[in-house]
Amino acid sequence: MQGRVRSKKKWLTNQFKHGFIFKKLDVRGKVFIEYVPAENGWLPIDAPNYMLINCFWVSGKYKGNGHGKKLYHECVSDANNMNGIVVVVGNKKQPFMSDKKFFQKQNFKLCDTAKPYFELWYKPLKKDAPVPKFKECAKNAECDYKDGLSVYYTNACPFTEYYVNTELKRVAREKGINIKVKKLRTMEQAQNHFVPHTLHSVFYNGKFVTQHILNEKNFNKFIAIEDS
Question: Most C-beta atoms within 10 A of its C-beta, which of 7, 21, 80, 81?
């Protein structure tokens, strides 16, 4: 586990020079927000002079206590002189993605969609702010590797390295499925990815399956759905 945490910390350290901000409340649980100027974000979006919320997590017993709003207003304060704030969510609640219901309550607006269920929501802070959009490369939910599994990930999450290179490779090998793994190592690679979720994305025979980090149980679930 320590190695995984070190990978996340190293990734964060490299992003701070690009304006990346990480703020955590002083509690034991996972109560934090990450945001960055969208031009320096690891997502394929076009949102000039917007602040991109990269990760926003209030877990367990800390929900419903105003912690989310407190963290969100930190972001608003830091984006004060920018065009607005933007976030990628699912059309319904998805694992490892922010819940759009919170942003609806903060008067965010839907501005773009990408297959199969990604949505881009924004809150303009200036009257003449341009409307953000997904890049075309991220619209169709298809990658350029059509034979078996292809998995893309970053170290923005401390768990991806292990599950992709140990757990997922083992399961694929046992099932006789070809697997290609690619770590997105640069901002440029992430900004030109095939879907608007670069932390972890799984494709099967070229089609997007899930952003869920897969163990054996989830592998069977998602690949069975894709095969049906």
Answer: 7
pLDDT tens for 34-62 read 999 999 999 999 999 999 999 998 877 77
User: What is the sign of the dihedral through the CA atoms of 17, 21, 22 and 26?
Assistant: positive
18-22, 107-111, 168-172, 214-218: least confident range = 214-218
Q: Which domains does the chain have, with CATH numbers?
A: 2-136 (3.40.630.30), 149-227 (3.40.30.120)
Residue with tokens 């170290």: 155
Task: Assess whether the previous peptide bond of 116 is cis (omega < 30° from 0).
Answer: yes
DSSP for 79-125, written as a single string? TTTSSEEEEEEESS--TTSB-HHHHHHTT-EEEEEETTTEEEEEEES
Share of the chain above pLDDT 70, in %: 94
